[in-house]
Amino acid sequence: MSPSSLTNSVLTDLYAHxxxxxxxxxxxxxxxxxGNILGxxxxxxxxxxxxxxxxxxxxxxxxxxxxxxxxxxAAFIADPAQLTKPVMTSWAKQFDNWAICDGLCxxxxxxxxxxxxxxDAWSKRKEEFVRRAGFVMMxxxxxHDKEADNDVFLCYLSVIERAxxxxxxxxxxxxxxxxxxxxxxxxxxxxxxxxxxxxxAKRSESSARWIASDALRELLSAAVRKRLTTxxxxxxxxxxxxx
Length: 243
Known about the structure:
The protein contains 14 helices and no strands. It is an all-alpha fold. It folds into two domains: 1-78, no CATH class; 84-243, Leucine-rich Repeat Variant (Alpha Horseshoe). Helix 12 packs antiparallel against helix 13. Mean pLDDT is 93; it is low at 234-243.
């Protein structure tokens, strides 16, 4: 089956599982799009992705349809090794809601060899969802990239501090998320993230104060401290897990 006919087959299946009631529910959670939303459930998309497996050409075609669910499906079947910076940035510029932004970053972009470079670059962009993507990447890399040195995340903390005054909802929540995830990566980064949060708390912007107070609540919690202490224990089998 050629990629074009396969794309048509996938779209037919997505339309067959469309549900307008789900579209209404998604809108209440801020999932609206400049393209078309069908209301297909995430479990169905995951099942479809499992059946299709990796298919980068199909993923590119599905993205180009502009349909929300087709684009989300692309995140599961695209090949991270074939992603280029221009393609990733082009897709990021087309993000129009938090869900497609987070879905692509979590399920696809963070697996790319360009992930750290683009996390930094996107965090400096002006567009709300491109900038959000930069901080979502930092958050998910803090969880999943086991090889990155602390220095990488210390640099991210500086970027987080500078961006904490951005009061756009999509950005401030991602900045907060990145700060919390970095602070839960290990004990050293926990101390650094707490220090960053305390500096952010001194800023005048309401977004900065919210980011700081919410992050400190978690990073200073007994639960987080206990987990970080357990990780340092000699012979611990948990290692340097990110969550």
